[in-house]
Amino acid sequence: xxxxxxxxxxxxxxxxxxxxxxxxxxxxxxxxxxxxxxxxxxxxxxxxxxxxxxxxxxxxxxxxxxxxxxxxxxxxxxxxxxxxxxxxxxxxxxxxxxxxxxxxxxxxxxxxxxxxxxxxxxxxxxxxxxxxxxxxxxxxxxxxxxxxxxxxxxxxxxxxxxxxxxxxxxxxxxxxxxxxxxxxxxxxxxxxxxxxxxxxxxxxxxxxxxxxxxxxxxxxxxxxxxxxxxxxxxxxxxxxxxxxxxxxxxxxxxxxxxxxxxxxxxxxxxxxxxxxxxxxxxxxxxxxxxxxxxxxxxxxxxxxxxxxxxxxxxxxxxxxxxxxxxxxxxxxxxxxxxxxxxxxxxxxxxxxxxxxxxxxxxxxxxxxxxxxxxxxxxxxxxxxxxxxxxxxxxxxxxxxxxxxxxxxxxxxxxxxxxxxxxxxxxxxxxxxxxxxxxxxxxxxxxxxxxxxxxxxxxxxxxxxxxxxxxxxxxxxxxxxxxxxxxxxxxxxxxxxxxxxxxxxxxxxxxxxxxxxxxxxxxxxxxxxxxxxxxxxxxxxxxxxxxxxxxxxxxxxxxxxxxxxxxxxxxxxxxxxxxxxxxxxxxxxxxxxxxxxxxxxxxxxxxxxxxxxxxxxxxxxxxxxxxxxxxxxxxxxxxxxxxxxxxxxxxxxxxxxxxxxxxxxxxxxxxxxxxxxxxxxxxxxxxxxxxxxxxxxxxxxxxxxxxxxxxxxxxxxxxxxxxxxxxxxxxxxxxxxxxxxxxxxxxxxxxxxxxxxxxxxxxxxxxxxxxxxxxxxxxxx
Length: 780
What we know:
The two termini are 55 Å apart. A hairpin with a 2-residue loop joins strand 29 (737-748) and strand 30 (751-762). This protein has 780 residues and is an alpha+beta fold. The chain has 12 helices and 31 strands. It folds into 7 domains: 2-94, membrane protein fhac (Ubiquitin-like (UB roll), Roll); 97-171, membrane protein fhac (Ubiquitin-like (UB roll), Roll), CATH 3.10.20.310; 177-262, membrane protein fhac (Ubiquitin-like (UB roll)), CATH 3.10.20; 268-345, membrane protein fhac (Ubiquitin-like (UB roll), Roll); 350-421, Ubiquitin-like (UB roll); 423-516; 530-586 and 600-776, membrane protein fhac: a member of the omp85/tpsb transporter family (Porin), CATH 2.40.160.50. Keywords: Cell outer membrane, Membrane, Repeat, Signal, Transmembrane, Transmembrane beta strand. Residues 28-95, 96-173, 349-422 form the POTRA domain. Part of the outer membrane protein assembly complex, which is involved in assembly and insertion of beta-barrel proteins into the outer membrane.
């Protein structure tokens, strides 16, 4: 590129040098200064750039300075400063004016995006140096997209009137994808497990859709830190990520990245104690507050969590400026680390102010409320670090930096927050397919930082062959300026008699508030109002005597359970509910697993037509085993509905356990109505399900995004209110169903797909099986 620019302006490489005065001449006092060759730059400006004043003698050094000043101005291709008799003649050849800037050969980056990159501008003086810099900037833009082979050449097309068109000829080249991520020196964890830690991914069969497989050299430094943090959190305190080498293929369209590690040995916690260096302060109570056990694997996160516990206890006891310093003693033979949490008098430093920059849309208060510290509070470096993590976790910013600097006095600190905003809205259009529900379409609109207030607003509409579901969601994460989340949800659901002999409609609103009870526990309190309708009931033809659901001429029953439900008309249910959730999978001390507990209680009867109590519970535990390549999971769910009035429950209120026991269709188990052709599922007032799962690699290249699983499900749906008055008996007893099967997980751009192949082991004759199912894989 440089050679082209020089070739176009050869005159710039042979500029005339000023004539040196004879050695005997001490100074030159020109009677006249003449400027020649200028067209757009006036004489006064040229003399000012040259530093020449009329009537002032000029030495040889002054003439050289005049030449350098004109040359360095960037306005002239050629410059000559020469005495001629008693005259000083300045000859210049101006650089042309840029008439237009064009881009050729680009398709991945549009002209508008490239125009924002370059600094050369139309109707300004052309600068070869700036054109070269612009070409390098464009190439850097392509490099950030993984196109390391991109080349950019600046060229000029001369026009009349000393004007030129500046053209950047671009060869984009192919995307340089990461063909292979390899590791050297890893013994404790497989390559596959370590690849999951990295943000950089290998190119796979979906390489045209997934962009995380393009090489970004700066990303490798982040990946090195991620690897180091991964090992440290698992007790490998001596881990070193020695190198991250990227070898580019000869065709420059692929790269092979190799991380070189030195794992070291894994250490566990040894003796855990608390020690006080503050006179009169007993450390015994602080030692009881620690939640570390000897023999567990060492993790820096465990240390930080327990420091926070001791700091909180100190504040409750009215102690300020208490510093908790962990003193770690290493035992090489036993590979243990003894930790003594030492209580010391800390430096008396206060937060003078918190400055926030870079948030053009997000309000300051949204960032500020992530701090547990306000102006005037004691300065706590650990709390500042945690605040930075909370800011990044919001998802509003591409980058967030938080640091502290000295304030106006020795005991004051200023906390600086520098954020870089990113788009927070999303519009999703998609299609779905379910074996039972058939094809469907959905549209979703969501903004997670509405008007810069940190609020979430969402609209979702989805349709299937037999149903329509739409909802509106609003979430205020800091209601009344506190750690109190206000949520509002309104929904509309309707079925159209595709897989049942009746239609139904549900309309409801649910306002709720949610707040923390502990680090891992939260409580939601809600009110609700919903209206349910059952209509267009088709009785069909049914056999009441021989028990089958066929058209064999038998007499139709006089009534059906579904028909009686529909006869009750539209029912309004209003009430209050609460849900407690405990989830330590993120906040807990075990990076390999965790526990999720959820218990809900809803009471209907504050007005309306229905009086009932419904209880639901969920308990889940998961753990990574075999060097974290395999995840095992156990899940238990149950629910109970109890009617308080004289009316029985309706089909729109009962439990169906849809999808909770694989191997059966949605609503494929539980009591069924014998009074219609299809034997409609009635649901049950009770359900209980236990599921056991194991996810594991299939041995395929990780870039395919495919893994496998095994599962076993067992459970039942049972119990109806009094149905003895019906002509045909209804089996609503407790009958265990069970199934086993295999799963294939596939991570795709449209979401994580799950293919289930199941075999029902225990079932009832009226149950409806489903051997294969395709769903979007969800997490609890």
